[in-house]
Specification:
alpha+beta
């Protein structure tokens, strides 16, 4: 089982995904050699995301790569 977290924009662009494998550890050879260098790879006992993995994706992929005046902002910004 693999969970994929991805971000897609209305203009057709996308962010590299985060892949979460059901495993106790991850192996580099699970991802194709021609995959984008910034694909995030993780693992969990059930193959699902959690608050820590989700927040990491938001901080490293979504936030920095989606900054725009047109982006919705939460209470903090």
């Amino acid at each position: 089982m693999v969970t994929v977290v991805e971000g897609i924009c209305a203009d057709g662009t996308s962010l590299s995904p985060m892949l979460i494998y059901k495993a106790h550890s991850t192996k580099v050879d699970w991802v194709a050699k021609n995959a984008p260098a910034d694909v995030m790879i993780g693992h969990s006992a059930n193959g699902w995301t959690d608050n820590t993995k989700g927040l990491d994706y938001l901080k490293t992929h979504f936030g920095p790569r989606s900054s725009s005046e047109r982006r919705l902002k939460g209470n903090g910004g």
